[in-house]
Specification:
By secondary structure, the protein is an alpha+beta fold. The protein has helices spanning 2-28, 37-42, 86-89, 142-151, and strands spanning 45-54, 57-69, 81-83, 102-110, 117-119, 138-139. The chain folds into two domains: 1-30; 37-151, OB fold (Dihydrolipoamide Acetyltransferase, E2P). It is built from four helices and six strands. Strands 1, 2, 3, 4, 5 and 6 form a six-stranded antiparallel sheet that branches. It is elongated. It starts with a helix and ends with a helix.
């Protein structure tokens, strides 16, 4: 009779170990950022920029620290201030990637009038309901930069 009891004890210990491992994964991967591949691909320009806070949202002025991708003349933007359209920044909140002042990866589109930029909206997908386009920015971390370079190698 000791063998069936030993199987129950071993099974119980394996079950507790499995639940502990799942709890560990939840704790470690809770704040993982995943880049939107379509958003990055359709962007005209991707930059790392320092953003300040204004009224709980990002300020429209962004200090470009590094140009990650864009047209050949985009490298000249490095170190300069960009003005980002307030209409695209008004949609950015905590759920859209804003977590306070700091450095962010900004996927940008040139405005039609060529006088500024807007955050590239996520392209429409069949599985999402119709509505206003969503925008997303990404806190600049090593993982975010690794994902970006996987999406756009050579940049």
């Amino acid at each position: 009779m000791t063998f069936p009891k030993a199987r129950v004890v071993v099974s119980g210990l394996l079950f507790v170990a499995w639940l502990s491992y799942l709890g560990y994964l939840v704790a470690v991967t809770r704040d993982t950022i995943v880049l939107s591949r379509p958003q990055i691909i359709v962007s005209d320009l991707c930059v790392l920029a320092k953003l300040e806070e204004r009224d709980g949202r990002p300020a429209p002025e962004a200090q470009v620290t590094r140009v990650l991708s864009g047209p050949d003349d985009a490298k000249a933007l490095q170190g300069k201030m960009l003005t980002i359209a307030e209409k695209s920044l008004a949609k950015i909140d905590k759920d859209s990637g804003w977590s306070g002042p700091g450095e962010y990866l900004l996927p940008l589109k040139v405005l039609d009038n060529q006088e500024g930029y807007e955050v590239t909206p996520l392209p429409r997908a069949p599985e999402f309901p119709a509505g206003p386009p969503h925008v997303r920015i990404y806190r600049a971390t090593d993982d975010v930069l690794r994902q970006f370079h996987e999406l756009k190698p050579g940049n």
